[in-house]
Amino acid sequence: MSTEPPLLPPSSSPGDYVFIDQPAELADWLAESELHMQRTGENRVCLDTEADSLHHYHEKLCLLQVACAGRYALVDPLAIEDVSALLALLDRHELWFHGSDYDLTMLRRTYGWEPRVVRDTQIAARLAGFRHFGLAALVHAVFGIELSKASQKADWSRRPLPVHMLDYAVDDVRYLIPLAEHLMKLLREKNRVDWFEQSCRELQKDVAARALEPKEDPWRVQGSGRLHAKGLAVLKAMWEWREGIARERDIPCYRVMSNKQMVAYAELFEAGGVMNPPNGWRPRWKKEFHELVADVFRAGQANWPQRVKKPKARLSEAQRDRIDALCSQRDLIAAQLDIESSLLGSRGTLEGLVISGEDSLLMDWQKQLFGDALQGVEAAQKDLP
Q: Is the peptide bond prior to 178 cis by the omega test (within 30 degrees of 0)?
């Protein structure tokens, strides 16, 4: 994005962090960090998390990476149940993440905690015009440093954690404040700081509005909408069987069978094809697979689930024209600003705007950019048949 040489990287030295798995150690580190931040006048802190969703059935937080004015700690939530003092310290400051959606979801699910102020370097990078906005890509672009990705899919629930995994983890927060300073400078130059702050608040609202309980029919996975009763019946049976196996063996469901595989089998079943289980399965799994298919047949059509048809508003020609015009305007504005079109609103968002006749689906900065292009949306909404 820039031809300027990389900025000087933040200073670091091997082992300049602590791994904390005792409540007393955490209390001492928090007290020292609070005093250190008061002395330095720093009001920004950083947080990242690691979980074990790729390795276990019940996903859980396994590590909290924290940075406070150049002090780094890796806190073990598997060993320390009560981290409320840490969360309180973070809430007294401006809290920075990178790609915070998943972190915020896990923190809310685990601790019932919603941070007071969230700032996200990924959002800042996208609004500044970066097209490659993963942390490693940004650190390389800004500081010329290559971050290791070796532990990206590691099992963070293992103990003890080896040094190379701890080094990997601390780098997720080490560069956030220097990176934030660079990105905020770019946003100030482009007069986009308000866009950034609004976007961070919108992300917090989106995460807070999500239901914590699983949806009513979780077995209706992506692709199941094209199935009829027969295919849905075997899909539901496979889902429930897979859940049982994954729970029993404490492994992620996808390691038994992926959603895509299950939908493919359901389509094959619907078409009258031969249902042979995947090669490499243990004999017990093959036997149970054949039994669940037979059970679906025995249950009979009267007991098969029906396809849920979601009501979909029919769009008038005027509304379709309005949506196309908004998308074209969006793309033009994004090109002029050198940012991704999706930052101004997805097509789905713009469709919802036209159907509802309200612009509340957009943030204030997005409305301002669309300007006169939003006029007439209410009129288009009245054209619904």
A: no
